[in-house]
Write a structure and sequence with these properties.
With about 100 residues, the protein is an all-alpha fold. It folds into 2 domains: about 1-35; about 35-95. The protein is about 80% helix and about 0% strand. The protein has helices spanning about 1-20, 20-35, 40-55, 60-75, 80-95. It is extended, with a radius of gyration of 19 Å. The protein starts with a helix and ends with a helix.
Length: about 100
């Protein structure tokens, strides 16, 4: 957890030194709220709700299964994931 705070502080300091805190704020706002179709907030809330259902003993397994399903959808939603993975593997194989 301290690393998260250190990284966030470093990001804010670098942004302030470059004179672009408004650009950083606009980028964060776009990524979390305005990206289509729902942005990251939609996924964050769904993971939070499904994770909180895991605290009910009778719904623990169901919560885990739905969390896995959401993570699989997140992975597969990015249509370029497998092509990027394949090009990364090929690139790593050529440099070795």
């Amino acid at each position: 957890m301290p690393l998260v705070f250190i990284a966030t502080g470093a990001l804010l300091i670098i942004s302030a030194l470059k004179g672009s805190p408004s650009d950083l704020a606009a980028l964060i706002k776009y990524d979390f709220w305005q990206r289509q179709p729902h942005g990251y907030v939609y996924w964050f809330v769904s993971i939070l709700v499904l994770g909180s259902l895991g605290y009910i003993p009778s719904l623990k397994n169901l919560s885990k299964m739905f969390l896995v399903l959401v993570l699989v959808v997140l992975l597969l939603e990015n249509k370029g994931f497998f092509s990027q993975l394949q090009s990364f593997i090929n690139k790593r194989g050529q440099t070795a």
